[in-house]
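Long-time lurker. I teach an intro course on protein structure, and each term I like to show students one example going from raw sequence to a predicted 3D structure in token notation. This year I'd like something fresh instead of my usual example. Would anyone be willing to generate the tokens for the chain below so I can use it in lecture? Attribution to the forum is fine with me.
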Amino acid sequence: MAKTRLGMVYFTPDGCKLAQRLYGSADALSLEAELLDGRREAEQSERAKAFVGRMFAEKKALLFFGATGIAVRMIAPYVQDKLTDSPVLVADDGGKFVIPLLSGHVGGANELARKLADFLGAVPVITTATDNHGLFAVDVFAQKNGLRICNREGIAAVSSKLLRGEKATIAAEGDLEQGDSPERRMPEELVLQPFSSGDAPDILIARREGKEMLSCGEPMLWLEPREYVLGVGCRRGKSAEDIEAFVRAQCEELGIEPEELQAVVSIDIKQEEAGLAEFARKLGLFFVTYSAEELMQVMGEFTASEFVASQVGVDNVCERAVAAYCGEEGRLLSRKRARDGITVAIGFLPWKLRTWR
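-- Reply from a regular --
Happy to contribute to a lecture. Here you go:
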């Protein structure tokens, strides 16, 4: 699992102690942390503004130890979109409360607040209405299940309906499998509606072609499955821009959009590759890696390279990683293509439900 990249800013000696506690336990908490000592910086100093701006540009989470007002003023120039903004949290320097300020759902600030509060012995102050009422959060559902939110205004519409105490209907092109565990049980506030029903559902999970086949009107929220998997191998130091340019060219050749990608997969030694990780974050993709041993155990015919094997211990990274992620349910669409130190392969994996929560 990729580490959460977290920038921490503190303004007092006690805040420094708390930040250092988190920094010292970063590995155990699966964090990749950076610190800014605000005690020596004016709130709007160029260095402080540059630090916050870089966190937003690199899609890193931000945790301020101090007053919420300071945090709001520092992030104000960079706030743009609830679906892409960095998660932002504030903790008091006494370590009593952790408050997610921004990107609580899609960015994961609420979940991170609970995790950090548990470590610090603090209270997570969650203000998101659906969370506080224990209701289904459709944007979290989409993010965890590899679904593309096609009409963002529908998120608020669905949430408002649930908060009024009404049930929301949901229909899917395909089966919405359920199970006995809490993560696999459909929330009580949802009602499953047949895909071919004559009424428009509140939430529709369908490919574009499937949605166009319906004659029941527009759903309140349309979620499109992301069913393509991107395998990548790259030379050390390749930039996110270079990777994205090559990936877009390969997607165009296959007639798909990069936004239809669900995951980027590679070998574990690339887990901390900055350009590859940044590319995955920019497109909102799951980033999954496998060891050389795991990749070599994948059955199939792959484009082998003795040079690659000598460097990383496996004869092919991109194709094998796609096959490992897809398993028997998916298939390889495009074999290894190489350009300027980057190799790419693309697979197809039919969408299925991961979790309701």
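Some talking points for your students: The chain has 13 helices and 16 strands. The chain has a mean pLDDT of 89.
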